[in-house]
Design brief:
single chain, alpha/beta, three-stranded antiparallel beta sheet, 17 strands, globular
Length: 441
């Protein structure tokens, strides 16, 4: 690395991704590191209301952010799941809720008991066995447990992405990150290695670093325009709108290589999959976590780069499978778009999951893929993908005991949801007064 800094990194681009990277590096890079960020106020960002998944707690918690302050600063609210209203067909609704659905017995997961009960005509819709969905549908919220015997209820957030970026900027700058205002006019590369040496700004300024992180959005000024990593293509409001819609044009896919030499692409510069399951910020977060695990001091080793790219490929492809399922399993017959996606060729990995589910109600989580069997279960059932069988161990329970287990689970969860405060009251109580907790230095 250049100079005497332990780590010398320049982040190109701000926005949510850029300032998440800068904040994480400010918090975790070793003492003596030099972290810089360059952005231009002349360039707009894809600043929207952003939805997240529960993993955002890991990132905010690692930084030491106070939740009440974070919600105030980002105008945030809580999120308990993702509702698909009118998605499968008109008038139909289901929810991919966070957290558990029902409870298993012994070695048998809940979906097998539910499938057996469904065959017997004794199963109720999954909402009756999901604490998160019951709470969401009745506009209730809690942190921790509503009562000692209750369950933890995982949750995520909705917030203003622009305000989140500004919040993280203040965090990062307070910890030594240096921000440069300017338009990137050129990328200077080493003639021998091909590595990036410096960024040239409009007006003639030149910013050097040992490592560069591309957060320049869809343009990919470093990873694509300078280093040539191309994309791999991957196969209704109930209230008045708060603002005019903002149409966005984008290429769905990911870079063939997100890390090349001494440059890593993060955020939209790395790729984009539609926000159907709120994975955009998570993919920024997971890239940061993966990068910190192999944080290079000096020129990165090719073996490390290959490992990072392989892990990214796995993560993105499995998320792709989950998103494709939502489109393929539709019942909107006679509508050209929906007819086309229902007939699309499926990735082999998704095809295998579907075969396992349809044959025996089996759901397998491969390695560290993002979505859990419970998530897959809710979408498969919600999208009307039928399973022909279930694990025969579920037959060991008598029909009366099976119905009793389901009824007791439902009653307990309804009682827990009723004990929770109203969502808006809970939010107001939490953020109504500034917290006395200080963010650690």
């Amino acid at each position: 690395m250049t100079g005497e800094a332990s780590i010398d990194i320049l982040v190109a681009g701000g926005g949510t991704a850029g300032w998440m990277v800068a904040a994480a590096l400010a918090r975790f890079a070793p003492p003596g590191s030099r972290i810089q960020l360059v952005e231009s106020e002349e360039i707009g960002t894809v600043g929207v209301g952003e939805a997240t998944i529960p993993q955002i707690h890991l990132f905010n918690g690692a930084l030491g952010l106070d939740e009440a302050e974070f919600l105030r600063e980002t105008r945030g609210s809580f999120k308990l799941g993702i509702s698909f209203d009118g998605w499968l067909r008109d008038g139909h609704s289901y929810m991919h809720a966070f957290g558990d659905v029902g409870r298993g017995a012994g070695l048998v997961p809940f979906q097998h008991y539910w499938l057996r009960a469904q065959r017997l005509g004794r199963a109720k819709p999954l909402v009756r066995y999901s604490l998160n969905e019951l709470a969401a549908r009745t506009m209730r919220m809690q942190r921790g447990r509503a009562h000692p015997k209750g369950r933890e209820m995982p949750y995520a957030y909705h917030f203003d992405a622009g305000l989140y970026a500004a919040y993280l900027r203040r965090f990062a700058e307070a910890r030594g990150v240096v921000r440069h205002e300017g338009m990137i006019a050129g990328v200077e590369r080493d003639g021998a290695s091909g590595d990036i040496v410096a960024l040239e700004l409009a007006g003639g300024r030149r910013l050097e670093a040992g490592f560069f992180i591309d957060c320049t959005g869809f343009r990919g000024l470093l990873i694509e325009q300078a280093l040539g990593s191309r994309h791999i293509l991957l196969a209704h409001l109930d209230a008045a709108p708060l603002a005019e819609p903002r149409p966005l044009r984008f290429t769905t896919g990911k870079r063939r290589r997100q890390w090349i030499g001494n440059c890593l692409a993060v955020g939209l510069a790395a790729g984009f999959m539609e926000p159907l399951e709120s994975t955009s910020i998570h993919l920024v977060q997971s890239a940061i976590s993966r990068f910190l695990a192999v944080l290079p001091k000096g020129r990165p080793d090719p073996a490390v780069i290959d490992f990072f790219n392989q892990q990214a490929d796995f993560e993105w492809s499995r998320i792709r499978d989950f998103l494709v399922l939502h489109y393929w399993a539709n019942q909107r017959h006679g509508q050209p778009f929906w007819d086309e996606v229902r007939a699309m060729a499926l990735p082999d990995t998704l095809g295998a999951k579907l075969e396992q589910w349809r044959a025996a109600g089996f759901i397998h989580r491969e390695h560290e893929e993002l979505f859990t069997p419970v998530g897959w279960f809710q979408v498969l059932a919600g999208q009307g993908v039928e399973a022909a069988g279930y694990n025969p161990m579920a037959d060991a329970m008598s029909e009366d005991d099976l119905v009793r287990m389901l009824d007791e689970t439902e009653a307990t969860l309804i009682e827990e949801a009723r004990a929770m405060p109203r969502h808006l009251d809970f939010l107001r109580d939490l953020i109504g007064a500034p917290s006395q907790q200080k963010v650690p230095a």
